């Protein structure tokens, strides 16, 4: 199962995520749920990097099947916010279509420092 935690800042803006696991919907190379999640996540990170001035941290731990991403800027720009909302829309649609057996979303407020 893919587990995605979507982070929100104190203003309620989406500001990052942590994704871990595999959907195991189908055999390796044929898993359309994993492929769809990967495309959404990679495109979101690349879009924020290419089209915004956001400061962010990104980490990939291949051996643990983890991708984490966090926008450091506060508040989040409207452009980055739109990319994050698009990610959440796509992930929510996948979870609705394929079920919680393959992808599960959790929303979490980040503690302000």
The helix/strand class is: alpha+beta
Element string (H = helix, E = strand):
EEHEEHE
Percent of residues in helices comes to 25-40%
The span between the termini is 32 Å
Q: State the CATH topology.
A: Alpha-Beta Plaits
Rough outline: globular
What do we call the CATH homologous superfamily? Cysteine protease Prp
Q: Please count the beta strands (DSSP E, at least 2 residues each).
A: 5
Question: What share of residues are in beta strands?
Answer: 25-35%
Q: What is the CATH level 1 assignment? A: Alpha Beta
CATH architecture: 2-Layer Sandwich
What's the oligomerization state? Answer: single chain
* Domain unit count: 1
What's the rounded overall pLDDT mean?
94
What gyration radius follows from the Cα positions, in whole Å?
A: 14 Å
Low-confidence stretches: none
Widest beta sheet: strand line-up: 3-4-2-1-5
Structure characteristics:
113 residues, alpha+beta, Alpha-Beta Plaits, five-stranded mixed sheet, 29% strand, globular
Plain-language structure description:
It is built from 2 helices and 5 strands, in the order E-E-H-E-E-H-E. The radius of gyration is 14 Å and the shape is globular. The longest helix is centred in the last third of the chain and has 21 residues, at 78-98. The chain has a 5-stranded mixed beta sheet, covered by helices on one side. The protein has 113 residues and is α+β, with helices and mostly antiparallel strands. It has helices at 32-51, 78-98, and strands at residues 2-8, 14-20, 56-61, 66-71, 103-109.
């Amino acid at each position: 199962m893919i587990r995605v935690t979507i982070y929100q800042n104190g203003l309620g803006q989406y500001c990052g995520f942590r994704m871990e696991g595999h959907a195991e919907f189908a055999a390796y190379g044929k898993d359309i749920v994993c492929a769809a999640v990967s495309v959404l996540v990679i495109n979101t990170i690349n879009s924020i990097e290419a089209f915004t001035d956001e400061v962010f941290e990104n980490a990939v731990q291949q051996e643990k099947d983890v991708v984490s991403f966090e926008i450091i800027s506060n508040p989040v720009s409207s452009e980055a916010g739109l990319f994050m909302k698009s990610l959440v829309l796509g992930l929510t649609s996948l979870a609705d279509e394929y079920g919680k057996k393959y992808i599960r979303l959790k929303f979490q407020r980040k503690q302000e420092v």
